[in-house]
Design goal:
Layout (H helix, E strand, L loop, with lengths): L8 H5 L4 E4 L20 E4 L8 H4 L2 E5 L2 H8 L12 E2 L12 E5 L3 H19 L11
Parallel strand pairs: 1-2, 2-5, 3-4, 3-5
């Protein structure tokens, strides 16, 4: 992987096959212009709708890691008139890549669960609390 630094957002995303964004969540006036992105780009916003606004989302196959939760947050004021997700992110794993641009609005549910679980285990081990269970083999 090669990393380049630029102060020009358009230069950073234009013609790139994969675009990962990571702004603070809730920023305004920071949406990417859909014309800057490759028509076949995979767009992975880590910042929800701070970078990928409704206009860009409507130009793509829009998926989410947890569709019901995505539906609950996409109607918030920061999201504008954001379209509904057309599928779960996991649906794309066993299927051919859809044609055109793909936006994966992953809310981080699974990752959050792992982070919290690791913190609980670390705290329990640090305090000598809890019991290790042998779950056996299935």
């Amino acid at each position: 992987m090669r990393l380049e630094v630029t102060g020009d957002v358009r230069e950073a995303v234009e013609g790139r096959p994969v675009v990962v964004t990571g702004l603070s969540i809730g920023l305004t006036d920071t949406w990417l212009d859909p014309s800057w992105l490759d028509p076949e780009a995979l767009v992975l916003p880590l910042d929800y709708a701070s970078s990928v606004g409704p206009d860009l989302a409507r130009t793509a196959v829009l998926v989410a890691d947890h569709v019901p939760q995505f539906e609950a947050v996409r109607t918030g004021p920061a999201w504008g008139d954001y379209p509904a997700a057309s599928a779960w992110t996991g649906d794309l794993l066993d299927a051919p890549r859809p044609r055109g641009r793909v936006v994966c609005q992953n809310l981080g549910n699974g990752l959050s669960d792992l982070v919290v679980a690791a913190a609980v285990v670390d705290a329990a081990e640090g305090q000598g609390a809890g019991h290790l269970l042998d779950t056996g083999s299935a």
